[in-house]
Amino acid sequence: MSALIMDGTSVATSALAETAERVRDFTARVGRPPVLATVLVGDDPASHTYVRMKRSRCARVGIGSRSVELPATTTTAELVGLLAELSGDPAVDGILLQHPVPGHVDERAAFEAIAPHKDVDGVTTRSFAAMAFGLPGFASCTPGGILRLLDAYDVPLPGRRAVVVGRSPILGKPVALLLLARDATVTCCHSKTADLAEVVREADVVVAAVGRPELVRGEWVKPGAVVVDAGYNPGNVGDVEHATARERAGLITPVPGGVGPMTIALLLEQTARAAEANAGLA
Question: Which sequence ranges form a coiled-coil region, renumbered to this chain (predicted)?
């Protein structure tokens, strides 16, 4: 029997409707909409596509967007200076630095130039610490979106064994923290994990976030497990061998249409929250 598809597009649509109402209330009270500044460095086609999508969603819910596009030759110092300037601009409520940046740029230094109260993408060490300690702050958007999707499908997490394949600072590590905070027992896997197949076979919940097409084979999936594929590779291929995994899993996300829409929905919700806090309404 095939797994039930976890429709991120549908769940995100409902979340965006709630954010739109929140934005309308903010705009009526403050006299301007919340504003998200997006910063894109270089000419990566996928990054340009993602930023266009985010601006389109901003317009749909009434959030203003300010787009800053920088050449691939931009230095770390120049990028840090721009992000510091946006952080100090009272007309900007949230800041998104599109990942990845060109290789010569110190991405971590750039992320840390974003003021924590405008870090609506949840990429600073301050946001990471807030997730780790359960403090107020902004969640990393893809991990936070994954948790929202699991909630929407009533996936119980306390006591469940969750396996995260991937350990990046903006996806693998934070989603592991968020799952741990929900009382799941979490194992983080990576390129040096021995017997990855055996580890995945024990998982009640699998989150694939490694950026390698179909690394997680369908036959590794425990019957009835929940499979969240956070990968997106050329050709609309995820990190999970979807066709085979779907025949074994209980719930599974599609690629595209699973995690991606939830990421954007959470980004815009957190932008609205930041605007409220910045205006003294929260």
Answer: none
Annotated binding-site residues read 166-168
Q: How far apart are CA 11 and CA 15, in angstroms?
A: 6
For the chain, domain boundaries? 30-116, 141-259
Q: What is the pTM of this model?
A: 0.95
Does the structural domain 141-259 have CATH classification 3.40.50.720? yes
Task: Let me know how long the chain is.
Answer: 282
List binding-site positions for NADP(+): 166-168
Catalytic residues: 54, 98, 121
Quick check: 265 and 257 in contact, CB under 8 A? no
